[in-house]
Amino acid sequence: MESMAVLDSVGVGDLVLLEPLTEDTLMQNLKKRFEHQEIYTYIGNVVISLNPYQPLPIYSAKTVEEYKNCNFFAVKPHIYAIADDAYHSLKNQDKDQCILITGESGAGKTEASKLVMSYVAAVCGKGEEVNRVKEQLLQSNPVLEAFGNAKTIRNDNSSRFGKYMDIEFDFKGDPLGGVINNYLLEKSRVVHHVRGERNFHIFYQLLSGGSDQLLKQLKLERKFSLYNYLNKEPASLQGIDDAGNFKAVQDAMRGIGFTPSEMTEVLEVAAVVLKLGNLQFGEQFQAGGTQACVIQSDKVVQEICQLIHLDETVLEQALSSRTVEAHQDKVVTSLNVSQGYYVRDALAKNIYNRLFNWLINRINESIKVSIYTIGYKFSLLTLIFDICLVSSSQDNSFEQFIINYCNEKLQQIFILLTLKEEQEEYIREGITWTHVDYFDNSIICNLIEDNKSGILAMLDEECLRPGEVNEETFLNKLNQVFLKHQRYESRVTQNAKHIMDTSLPINCFRIQHYAGKVTYNVTGFIEKNNDLLFRGLSQAMWKAKHALLRSLFPEGDPPKASLKRPPTAGSQFKASVFTLMQNLYSKNPNYIRCIKPNDNKRPAVFTDGLVRAQVRYLGLLENVQVRRAGYAFRQAYEPCLERYKILCKETWPHWKGSGRDGVRSVLSSLSTDPKELAYGHTKIFIRSPSTLFDLERRRQQRVQELAALIQAAFRAWKCRKNYQEMRRSQILISAWFRGQRVRSKQTQSCICLAAFDKRILLILVERVQRRATKMIRGLGTKTYKEQLLELGMSIPVVVFKFFLLPVLWTWLGGCGRGRIL
Questions:
Q1: Residue 578, CA distances (Å) to 155, 463, 586 in order
Q2: Which of 167, 580, 592, 757 is the most exposed place for a label (fewest CB within 10 A)?
Q3: Which residues have a Cβ under 8 Å from the Cβ of 305 and sit 6 or more positions away?
Q4: Is 165 helix (H, G, I), strand (E, B) or coil?
């Protein structure tokens, strides 16, 4: 941790520092933060995310800039922090990264994955090719959501498949491309979903947003109730614009690079799936008296065959009979009505599942990286975890069983990688590793996956063995093998232990998962594990003159046909999980644990029981205990010294030594228990949160003391400054007043003098004027010489009279207006 932002927020931002640590205090901390719209909390570098069910102003461009190149703990807990940390670890340390997003349906996994992708797209480089790759990666979301998401009771946009995305970057941190892998699409939803839920989004989007011309071309009508695979009840959702989303899906497909013909073919295949659900079967008796099914929906068959350009007879025969080949012989067996419906639904599920896989492969073709490019991988994994922890539940079937198996494996690798990461850091820092006691769920994983005596292995054995096979024989075998297993129980094992528990039905078994007990109903296990599609159906689809549909069933080509039995669904999933675990173990993992705060999708509502159950099955308390088993807190010396140097006179305000010596001086001056401390090569390790909180308490106290000193110094400086300003103002005012008084006296004197001078001058002027007039009049009686002589002697008088006198009168007039000499 590079900062104490996790302590400066509401509650405790990092549960590793929670004191005391119990399930109740953990719950109280999460609730307190949620009530203040603090939806993110850390467990070390794990992010816990509570779905707010409302838009929050914490994902703006400004927020992206705040978390860009941030120190993970230097800012408030946020999903952007883990995305930035993973991205820059990949870019700067050349380490492949993985972000694992887990949580139950409605917890916000899909939105979390989109936020991570959008953040990475925002902070990586710019450029035409880079922008093209980023746009295609982002545009994959609307397409996959339309074909892979559905409305469930818990979530209006629930991902019904697991998604693993690898994004590859070059040495500059720019995306080069990527690849998407999917796990376990819930294809059974195509043919059945409970009341209150919907089929996959694309069907409703197509019927709502498709143009009249398009629907006519696909031979569809807008009414949802006309299709058996869609609920008869109103399927529109408040706040969801199916028509608008259909346009967004089309735009996204064009952005990825789908051609118009490819887009049309995809919708034609989706229309075929819808129409298969409207096929009805009836009974007829054959010549031998045996019952056989016959298709009663001729118009539906005709429309399907027109869409895929297939002969109607071929489709009818494939749906109503089964052809078995043995050596060179072919045996055609008619199906009864129930078998006919089973085959119809199996074909619909297989077509949709293969279409979904084709879409992912087509997207991968657009976003793939050149084989000549070497880069670093950033992986984003989003998986479905709808774990039911109510032991009395009888609804958990094969799909839930293998999902919970995957969850056990992820919990196992999470603990192992967490311990491995902790141990590696201790070794790097030269700190003695402390053994950590934790629950090892290997016993549960082996119960399920053991190659010889695991549940999946015995299920495959039952599916493959000759003779009568049903769920009862499968359950009996489980009871024999696991009679004394501490994590397995059924009616038989309970009776053997003299336990009476009527909550466990006779056709169920129960596993004590690390998160709690889960009951599974074995009905349908064998059928779903076989996941067989009759060879005649594959051959019929391959005979269609529809390019896309034909490509989905390559095994229908007779030369490529194989008599070898395809692998079971369980064995395929087990292999996928094994590959996934290897992939995760080779990368630096980052975790986002999503939690649903309430079942009603309401903002600001925190249901304690629901959240507590998720905290348990996500193993959050155990995660915290592992993180703080040795030293709960560690921090590089320099930032630690920067934060706490105010507590020691030797280090405050400036320290000239090394960071390690400075931290040692600070902690020694505080008499901190040496047993609580360990000095690594680059970091200080503190064992318990109470020691850290004591440091924080002392720091806050010292900050308050320094704040008081600063405030006192500031107030004194401000008072001095105000006094000096007032003193300068007083001097200026006094000087101005004295000057004004002197100037006023001088002005009065000048005014009096001017009035006196005016009277004297008037008298003189009158005298000069009379003398000059008299002189001029006397010139007329004298000779010219005398005149000149007289005039020459009187030049000053003449000049004064004719030149200076007008100026003098003007001046005197000015004096009369109060002008001062």
A1: 29, 22, 13
A2: 757
A3: 311, 312, 315
A4: strand
Annotated binding residues for ATP? 103-110
Q: How many CB atoms lie within 10 A of CB 157?
A: 16
pLDDT of residue 154: 78
R_g over Cα of the chain:
46
Distance CA 8, CA 230 (A): 51
| Interatomic CA distance for residues 680 and 42, integer angstroms | 24
CB within 8 A of 451, min separation 6: which ones?
Answer: 457
Output the CA torsion sign for 357, 359, 364, 365: positive
Full DSSP string of 113-160: HHHHHHHHHHHS--SHHHHHHHHHHHHHHHHHHHHHEE--SS-TTEE-
CA–CA separation, 680 and 427 (whole Å): 9
The secondary structure of the chain in percent helix, strand, coil, rounded to multiples of 5, reads 55, 10, 30
Binding-site residue positions: 103-110
Q: What DSSP string describes 484-499?
A: T-TTEEEHHHHHHTT-
* Predicted confidence (pLDDT) per residue in 678-703, tens digit: 899 999 888 877 788 788 888 888 88
CB < 8 Å & 24+ apart, contacts of 798-806: 798/772, 800/768, 800/772, 801/768, 801/769, 801/772, 805/765, 805/769
Residue 185 in this model has a pLDDT that exceeds 80: yes
CA 478, 484, 486, 489 torsion-angle sign:
positive
Q: What is the rounded CA–CA span in Å between residue 517 and residue 729?
A: 85
Q: Are 153 and 196 in contact (CB under 8 A)?
A: yes
Integer Cα distance of 13 and 77 in angstroms: 7
Q: Residue written as tokens 């007829």?
A: 284
Which ranges of 337-490 would DSSP assign to H, the alpha helix? 337-367, 398-429, 442-449, 455-464, 471-481
The answer to whether 418 touches 486, Cβ cutoff 8 Å, is no
Q: Under a CB-based contact definition with an 8 Å cutoff, are residues 411 and 123 in contact? A: no
674: which residues sit within 8 A by CB, 6+ positions away?
none
Among 208-212, 341-345, 406-410, 745-749, the minimum mean pLDDT is found in 745-749
Contact criterion met (CB below 8 Å) for 66 and 565? no
Of 529, 162, 530, 542, the C-alpha closest to 360 is 162
- Is 215 in contact with 207 (CB distance < 8 Å)? yes
Cross-strand pairs, 166: 179, 379
Beta-carbon contacts of residue 187 (< 8 Å; ≥ 6 apart): 349, 350, 352, 353
| Residue in 626, 629, 598, 627 with CA at minimum distance from that of residue 612 | 598
| Pick from 269, 262, 151: nearest CA to 220 | 269
Reference 384, options 363, 368, 407; nearest CA is 407
483-501 burial: b if 16+ Cβ within 10 Å, else e: eebebbbbbbbeeeeeeee
Share of the chain above pLDDT 90, in %: 32
Q: Can you tell me the mean pLDDT for 73-87?
A: 87
CA 138 to chain centre: 13
pLDDT value of residue 254: 94
Q: Predicted confidence band at 390 (pLDDT cuts at 50, 70, 90)? A: very low
Residue 200 has what DSSP assignment?
B
pLDDT digits (tens, 9 = 90+) for 128-165: 777 787 788 889 999 999 999 999 887 888 888 888 88
Name the more confident of 420 and 786: 420
Given a contact cutoff of 8 angstroms between Cβ atoms, the answer to whether 520 and 401 are in contact is: yes
754 — pLDDT class (breaks 50, 70, 90): low
Looking at residue 785, its pLDDT comes to 47
State the pLDDT at residue 373: 55
Q: Are 335 and 291 in contact (CB under 8 A)?
A: no
Q: How far apart are CA 218 and CA 269, in angstroms?
A: 9
